[in-house]
Design brief:
By secondary structure, the protein is α/β, with parallel strands linked by helices. Helix content is 19%, strand content 23%. It has one domain: Alkaline Phosphatase, subunit A. Helix 2 runs parallel beside helix 8. It is globular, with a radius of gyration of 21 Å. The N terminus is likely disordered. Keywords: Hydrolase.
Length: 443
């Protein structure tokens, strides 16, 4: 059977208590617009928390004293003053501008106090998901090629995503050379666009919906989580520094703060917060954040991951989100852009020392990949250019110190998970075999 995407949501204005989104000296009660796409259970509308389903209106008092700029294709008169628009199947390059306050000392173009709007992204032609037909069924070799949902080459798949490095620079680092000896290097792996955020979206949705920058989005589309729910398979995200919110919906609601934790302070040229919302794929989608059950499956990595691994509670499909030093985004203070993978390589070798043996015994495929190549080495920002990144497979079924030259993109990771668990399809790039399929690269 097929399941249609929810129709365009209705706007509901509610009063909520803001956190760091309110400039100092202003009232903490602001008028926001919440876009609700999933029934909130027994909660009344006025009790539904602002968890990322909407945006500030330009005339909101919370924006007083801040310059709100509109860039093409936005105009102040568009959409009743709300920051919202419809993406038309990857034909619209998204550009916006200013505007939630993050008083953490983060600077941007010389400004020290910024407001950031959330944009709602709707798919131009919503795709239907198919929950009954898998892309392909690989023979198991035991004479019985019938396969039920969730019964594939791997019992579990764990993704670990790193930041902003071209393949050559990564694999020339001594610590990543050591990692290569522990796994299978995919030498022809590619991001699908620039910058980072749309690549994260593509990993779970099979598209980046025309997003062309790193503003703050609530994407209203289906994802692999819809397929996993339909199949009755569990999932989780473990993010370093992330802290769930206690709300009227429950004690472990989605936290859509843009940044959490201290500034890493390792290099004065970077000045990054330890955690960024954009690195957590699930939080980019309002079809995820408006569902409390889904929200309760995003954990603080330090508090939960170790216990889940060694108690055999790691779910079938999961992401581990390292912080901004562990993911290679920021180099050490005495380092430079070329050598930024070093800290990530040191951390990830230690991570595998702790967990790889146990994960392998549990039938887990560990997929370590970068979101995109550095622009210095991949200067053409047009989607689907070279964008060569390092991807290494570890764990169950992997022969260490091997490689594969098959062309793949981020969509291969999504297609591989869908194939492995027999989930069906999202009807996007997960159905395009030219993007590759990770399950076909493992014996």
């Amino acid at each position: 059977m097929s399941r249609s995407q929810p129709q365009d949501p209705l706007f509901r204005g509610i009063d909520v208590t803001a956190s760091s989104a309110v400039p100092a000296g202003q009232s903490s009660t602001v008028k926001m617009v919440v876009i609700s796409v999933i029934t909130q259970g027994e909660l009344a509308d006025h009790e539904v928390p602002f968890i990322g389903g909407g945006v500030y209106k330009a005339s909101d008092p919370a924006l007083a004293g801040y310059t709100v700029q509109y860039k093409p294709p936005f105009k102040a008169s568009n959409y009743g003053g709300y920051y919202t628009y419809l993406v038309n199947n990857n034909t619209v390059g998204i550009n916006n501008a200013t505007a939630q306050t993050e008083p953490m000392g983060i600077t941007n173009s010389g400004q020290k106090s910024l407001m950031f709007p959330f944009f709602t992204v709707n798919e131009g032609t919503p795709k239907e998901i198919n929950v009954t037909k898998s892309h392909s069924i690989e023979p198991r070799g035991d004479g019985n090629d019938e396969r039920v949902k969730g019964e594939g080459k791997f019992k579990k798949i764990l993704h670990v995503i790193f930041e902003n490095e071209v393949f050559g620079w990564t694999m020339n680092d001594s610590y990543w050379k050591l990692l290569a000896k522990r796994g299978k290097v995919l030498t022809n792996s590619h991001g699908v666009t620039h910058p980072s955020l749309p690549n994260y979206a593509s990993l779970i949705a099979g598209d980046f919906f025309g997003i062309a920058n790193e503003d703050f989005y609530n994407i209203n589309t289906t994802t692999i989580y819809d397929l996993l729910d339909a199949a009755g398979l569990d999932y989780a995200t473990y993010a370093e520094w992330y802290t769930p919110l206690a709300t009227a919906r429950g004690p472990n609601d989605c936290n859509n703060e843009l940044f959490i934790g201290p500034l890493d302070n390792t290099n004065p040229d970077w000045n990054s917060p330890a955690y960024r919302r954009l690195d957590v794929p699930a939080l980019l989608f309002q079809t995820y954040t408006t569902n409390y059950t889904r929200c309760s499956k995003i954990y603080n990595a330090t508090a939960q991951f170790d216990a889940d691994v060694f108690s055999h509670k790691l779910p079938a499909y999961s992401f581990y989100v390292p912080d901004m030093l562990h993911n290679g985004h920021d180099p050490e203070s005495n380092s430079d852009y070329v050598h930024q993978p070093t800290t990530a390589g040191i951390w990830f070798n230690a991570f595998l020392d702790m967990y790889l043996e146990e994960l392998t015994e549990q039938g887990t495929l560990v997929v370590a990949t970068f979101d995109e190549a550095t622009w210095q080495n991949d200067s053409d920002s047009t989607p689907n250019n070279n964008n060569a990144i390092a991807t290494i497979l570890f764990g169950h079924g992997i022969t260490p110190n091997t490689k594969d030259d098959t062309y793949i993109t981020h969509y291969a990771a999504l297609r591989g998970a869908i194939t492995n668990f027999g989930l069906g399809s999202l009807g996007r790039n997960d159905t395009n075999a030219t993007n590759g399929d990770l399950t076909l690269l493992v014996n």
